[in-house]
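hi!! sorry for the late reply, been swamped w classes. u asked for the two structures so here they r. pasted raw, havent cleaned anything up. first the sequence of the first protein and right below it the tokens
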Amino acid sequence: MIIKELNPGHFGKFHNVNVELTPGINVIYGKNEAGKSTLHAFVKGMLFGIERLRGRAGKEDLYVKYQPWDTPGAYQGSMVLSVDGEDYRIIRSFYKKERSIKIIRESTGRELTDAELGVSAIIPKLTESIYRNTISIEQLRAKTEYELAEELKNYITNLSMSKSKEVDVNGAISYLLEKKKKLEKRLPDDRLATLTSELKELQDTLKKLDDLSGELAELKKRSEYLENKQKEYNRSTNQERMKKVAYYPAILEKFNRFLEMKQSAKNAEEKVEGLGEKTKKQASELDSSNTIGEHLKELGELRQRKQELEEELKEKRQEIEPHLKQGSISGRVIGVIIVVLGLAISSIPFPFPFMTILIRCIIGIAFLVAGISKYILTATKEEKTKQKLEDMKTECERQIFYLHSKWHDILLSHRVSNESQLMVKYNDVLKNEVEREQALERKIEYQAAAKQFHNKADELEYEIIDYMKHFLGNPEASKECMQELWQEIEEFKEEIINEMSANEEEHTNIRSQMERIRWTLESNVECEVKLDQKQTEQEELCELRKELLEEIEAITLGIQTLKELSTDIHDSFGSTLNQMLSEIVSSISQGEYTSIIVDEKLNVSVLHLGQYVSLDKLSAGTMDQIYLALRLSVASLLFPEENMPILLDDTFALYDEERTKAALKLLAKETNRQVIIFTCHRREKELLEECKVPYHYVDLNEIGKKPFEYA
């Protein structure tokens, strides 16, 4: 695998930066805070993602550390890998709300469907723990972790047992452990404990039921004895009287009902009497509605006739008065004109000689007489017309007065002053008549009810007296006789009934006990069936538990065998790892340490001055060198076919110059392996140039200022 390109879009301090890398050795130089560790963390994040940590682990949360504070939503980047000659571009968003990953095959432009697996979709065996413990060394973290030992052990065991790296022994052990856990969960211990408790309860219940059955048999014998005793008593002479005594509460109830019927009949009769007096009073006090209705109708006719007379008088007056006025004026004017004309004729001189004074006088007198006559006739005619009009008026007023008198008589007959009051009285009369009719109906109902109450009281009285005859001489349905009856019955109870009361009470209690026992037995009739079912279920569960325990024991034995076999196989492969590690350490230390041994947990011991000493007894620089050699050895063992890149973050900080040069030469011999060195020193560059080792140089301080330098 070769990392060809890093593109932290928005990651830590980087924004839209492009870093190109080449096969072989790549030196990424930068001063402190230039972003070397950030770029190293970006590679890990692109391969495996970055999860946000919680709790105590949150103090070292890389998610928060590298999230851009100004654009948190743009927390993303991309990188280009080359695997088996094929380029893949990984595009990943780290933002928690929009987390995503895409892997695109550059040659075809197609997106891998299993991109959510991360780099495992391209290199299946590369896990985060292997990456962290082999090909990636962070600052001051050259030491491997325990989980690398487990990965290496699993790999060696797979290879030895199946001659293949595809079999996962650790996976097999994990599978067996998971299956064992599932089988342990299937163990019916809880159900068996519950069944044991239920069986004990059922057995106790059955024992109680047996005891109840015996008790029921005894009670049945006692009940039969009491029944026989009761039969003997019933054959005695007092049997009939005992029945009557038992019937006394019913008679007492009927007597109370008898009194109620008598009282109800009395109440009904009183109501009938009250309603009769009320209806008589109503009939005497108010006129009938028919009379008032006829008078109201007559008043209406009188009012209409009066209006017609007034209208007729008004019309005649309007018809005569204009003619009267016009004729009077014209007649009088004509008379005056004739008189004036006669005077004028008698005084005017005529031109004719034959007309004498006498003739003029005669003509003047004639005109004067004619004018006066006309005037007198007109005055007489006017007087006659006035008289006729006055006669008509008088007649109309007379008739109106007659109508008014009749109107007044009608109102006076009903003791009201106007028609409105008469109408109110008419409504009251109608209401009174409705109430009277309703009162009559209720009176009939109460009469029927009183009769029914009397009939019922008579029936009850007959039954009560018939009952009393068994105890009293001449009874009657009265309170005194009922009191005497009660005393007689109480005396009879003291003499006879008390004799059997204890017997009957005992019999009643026995029947009650027998009913309770029978109900208990019937409600638990399926108890034996349940007991059989529970016992069968218990036997089946015990058998299942036995089978599961045998299978769990077999799985435990298998896990133990796999672990022992894995340890034995690791011992056979230990020499290979030790030889590879010893060669690398000898080369780096320039022959000072030639023999290194590693146990199954990757604990390292070094041969020094004739004895093996623990790695922690050596200097820090030597420890880093040996751990670097261990990582290279394990990486070669885990990935014999894939040349994985090595990422070194200030790994040579504790090396002296000679061992640094030796380490660089060793890395340079790995011609097929990409090496990425993050450093804040120029020593690595100078030593590579001194050894004439080709390398690709990236200066983080100059990113964005000038092109990258190639040596």
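now the second protein. again sequence first, tokens right under
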Amino acid sequence: MAEPPAGWEATVDALEPLLPGGKPRLTAELLARPPFRFIFDCDKEAKLSYLTKLVEAIGSTLGQPVPARPSKIVAGLEPEATNAMLRMLAAAATGGAKRSGSAVSGAASRYAPPPPAGLAAHASDDSEAGQQAEAPSVAFQRVDNMLPALARQCGEARSALSAGAAPGSHDALALCEQVAGIARDAAVLARSLEQLLGAAPVIAAEAAAWRSEADKLAARLAEEEQGEARAAAASARRMADLDAQLAAARQRVALAAAQRYKASRMLRALGSRAALFQRSTLVAVRRQSAVQQQGTVMSAAAGGTGVSLVFVTVPSAEVGRKIANSLVENKLAACVNIIPGLVSIYSWQGKIESDAELLLKIKTRKQLLPELTEHVKGLHPYDECEVTAVDVTGGSPSYLAWVLDSTKAG
């Protein structure tokens, strides 16, 4: 159920005495959205025409504008204004303007549409009526309601004057009263027009204020667009910086790849040189072995130097250092050379084996060979380790003397 409009009880009090048999019954629900069939039931155009004439008649009879609009009444909208019209209808039906008095005026002003913001403060007072001037929308409504009635009354007065009436007769008095009503309506119309003219500066001021707000909004939008343009430029600069950094990173990667390729070539060259060194060492060892063998033959004839070269192969540099250190510390050898890069191919337990090994070249006394051999076997990880020796038949006398001095006597 819709909320009852303000003043609906006054509508009931005003209309119920005029309804034959008290029907239809006026309720808050009915007056909250008064249906048009409550007044008259016909098609829409006839409804609007009937309501327009009714509003004109009420306004003409009471000399006041009717706050209700026919189109809103038909649609069931603005129930407060419709209730105000119904009370004015009851006032017109029970005695016209004389009986409507201030109650009807209060009802019209109370249910009129509110004036626009800013206009109420500039409204002028009516010096004759002593009432607050109405807002422009109400004044327009009053003019819309009064102009047709005023035109019709003027036409009726013109017709009556043309037909003529005896002075002092009842018709002449009625004609005078009608002309006086026209004059009153014209005065009300003039006041309404004066209020419209007075409201024009206020409307202009409101329009200027709206224009100022529009200018501010346009300035704000322009500032926002400039901000967006600056942000887009900054983003473009950041993207350019990122592209430059990416290009620099790609250059660094390419440089690193080139350096890596160069390093790999250097490593391959070093590997080739190491292999060449190993081959050179093996050749030198073989030559020295040949010389030693030749020296052995010669020593057999000459009696020898008392110094021997002992050859031992080991699986790793760690084992080689261990054996070399132990031999020198125990004075079983004056010097031990550790020669890397050997590849030994041999038969072991029915299989051909191949291992990378190192060669120990040991300088010692010939008399220490048995003890040196047992000492090496005790430190060597192989089950059967190589220990071979050749006699030194010649060489630097001082070096051979040093070997003998650096080893213990056998």
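hope this helps!! also noticed smth abt the second:
The chain has eleven helices and four strands.
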